[in-house]
Amino acid sequence: MTTELTRPVTSQPAPVSVEWHHEHILDLDDFSVAEIETVLSLADRMREVLDRRIARVPALRGYTIVNLFFEASTRTRASFELAGKVLGADVLSVTASTSSVTKGESLIDTVRTLRAMRTDAIVMRHSMSGAPYLAAEHTDASIINAGDGSHAHPTQALLDLYTMRSRVGDLRGKRVVMVGDIAHSRVARSDMWGLAAMGADVVVCGPPTLLPRGLRPGDRPAHAESAMPPVTVETDIDRALEGADVVMALRLQSERQDNGLLPSLHEYSQLYQVTQERLKRAKPNHLLMHPGPKNEGVEIASTVASGRNSIIEEQVTNGVAVRMALLYLLSGRTEAPGGEARS
Amino acid sequence: MSTLAIHNGRVIDPALGRDGIADVVIVDGRIARVGPDEGSMVVEAERIDATGLIVAPGFIDLHTHLREPGFEHKETIATGTLAAARGGYTTVCAMPNTQPPLDSRAAVESVLREAENSAIVRVLPIGTITRGRAGKELSPAGELVASGVVALSDDGDAVADPSLMRHALEYSTRFGLPIAQHCEDPSLVAGGHMHEGWVATRLGLRGRPASAEETFVARDIALAELAGAHLHICHVSTAGSVALIAAARARGARVTAEVTPHHLTLTHEEVAFAEDFKSARYITNAKVNPPLREETDLLALGIALRDGVIDCIATDHAPHSVGDKEIEFDLASPGLTMLETSFGLCMKLVHDGTLSLPTLIERLTIGPARAWGLDARPGLEGIGTLAPGALGDVVLLDPNAAWTVDPSTFASKGHNTPLGGRELRGRVVATIFGGRLVHETDRVVAL
Description:
The complex is a heterodimer of chains A (343) and B (447).
Chain A: H1 2-6, H2 33-50, E1 64-69, H3 75-86, E2 90-95, H4 104-116, E3 121-126, H5 131-137, E4 142-148, H6 154-168, E5 175-179, H7 186-197, E6 201-205, E7 232-234, H8 237-241, E8 246-249, H9 255-258, H10 265-272, E9 287-289, H11 302-305, H12 312-331
Parallel strand pairs in A: 1-2, 1-3, 3-4, 5-6, 5-8, 6-7, 8-9
Helix pairs in contact in A: 2-6, 2-12, 3-12, 6-7, 6-12
Chain B: E1 3-13, E2 18-27, E3 30-35, H1 38-41, E4 46-49, E5 54-57, E6 59-64, H2 77-86, E7 89-94, H3 105-118, E8 122-125, H4 141-147, E9 152-153, H5 162-172, E10 179-181, H6 186-189, E11 194-195, H7 198-203, E12 207-208, H8 210-227, E13 231-233, H9 239-250, E14 255-259, H10 261-265, H11 269-272, H12 295-307, E15 312-313, H13 322-325, H14 342-351, H15 357-364, H16 366-371, E16 394-404, E17 423-433, E18 436-440, E19 445-446
Parallel strand pairs in B: 1-4, 1-5, 6-7, 7-8, 9-10, 10-13, 11-12, 13-14, 14-15
Antiparallel strand pairs in B: 1-2, 2-3, 4-19, 5-16, 16-17, 17-18
Helix pairs in contact in B: 3-4, 5-8, 8-9, 9-12
């Protein structure tokens, strides 16, 4: 379908100014508002490409992306793989076992080896916080953090922002409530940075054993006030949900019970499950989100997950568009991604 | 007969309460005379002009990891003691977490033999509290004492079993030997890699809470009082521990304590922020156990050191290879190399008014000597002082000289410090061990 391939993009004007200073995408803590806007507006154009009957453009032809996953993942890996393929990049997925690669030298070796093969971007997931930072210090390939330990998941946060923005517009003053295992959630950490930058009022809610230290005002010295995004901490879900514009339930892992952080999953669901009844406290037109994979019946009621306020599937689709935008920005290419390139 | 005369320095000898311009004369490796113009009375001598410099007893480190035997890629007795000399240290107590660990006469004697051959300064070995440092059964303390250990410690790990710790303390009273405990409850720090607080939260790292140290400090003080034993708390790092130690000492408990230069001066922010808060990093060279804490802890530690609640400064010099640190943060080895930056870093407390210079020198010399009774050991009489007849261990210091830390110039094999590129004010100009110059900079002027 060459007409598809060569159709110029006319519906979306090119961004007037592209703010972008990143060689790697490690977390959102060093993203300016302008840079987030750049990603979101480019994601709009990518979403348009993705929705074409034949979603394939040559914008990243000759660009090589390796998905380097040290931890199991279906959705994030598939999302990156599709994002690369839609843009015509060569995408290779490597499942590295952490047992064979337990030493950092090996991690450094691995990324250097991939770079020596002329890999342009490495999408990396790792069970240890900070691992992508180590990789980024030792290669000039672009490192994209696809989730590191309990630390960050910046592409998830950007797709969350994109999805919220597409539904409610300006996020300033919007009450966004995240419920669940905040302490171990890389999604929550990255979302806090992104949402704070966009001016949302962020509320995190969970049992005291799953709330990390340092989030409350007074947990840090005055000089470090700006070193964490401003959030409100709640342990009572009903108080947290009051007047919410967006509610995000986070996955609860059953091992939290084994580690003595929770009495039982049953008690957790009694106290913290996002239910239809509890959501009556939120705004009637609230958005219901979940980064997936869900444990229906634990952190979220099935009726809620598939209810009319749920935009969980939309998050998944937008994820591909946002990752297309990020890969494109990292590639440093400047021609319009949806069109002009000739095949 | 060899004579060394150090002329016209400001001699600070806290043990004798001396602070003034004087000459120090060392004859045949021992202090002969200290006083104004004493140097000019000596006819034939090697002479050093110490005008404008501080002259003090050589520093004593109760907590050094020399890594030999077993980890010679990290450090050897030769490189570690050379680093000590550069840092002004003339005596280092070697921690026993080597391979094999120092839990037998044979192991201790092999270290002493190697020290005899290759050490630049004095090495005093520490034995393990438990066999193999496994925390299961007591090491043969009698055998270890006979081979020359000055304390027992499983440092790196705490003796976790409370009954075993009680027995170790009780048994030690037979020898009057300090039990030096690394206070961190292994259950509370499991999986943790830095101080539990807002920086760990930002980095998504599991923390080691201050309470993990404090619960063990409290427990071990109670056990030491029960046993009537001498408990030494290694590397105190929290304000809460300071309060517990102060209360125990006020009751008359035989509890001594040390603090490291890094716990006195660096916070957990070192782990994440090289410059500003904008973007975080994972700086494995700032990973250490116990972890770097918070500003309030630093303040409490400085005051406790000033007031003598904490007896001394110990480096916990913990050299590691590049491969041990250029690795995922969770996998990186804890510890930082400290001998060569210790004085410069500690001088921050003098420059900011927390400590007087004589107090700092006290905590680096006679403070540690008395904490472990080293000055009462045969052969070490007068250690940590410049009293006539004492060991000729002397350090020349320039408390105001600014210098920039460059790990690539370290004598230590370990370049693992977060201080690289940082300016410190306070420099070791020369180190004299047993009357011989073992370290000198171009600031030393022979007369």
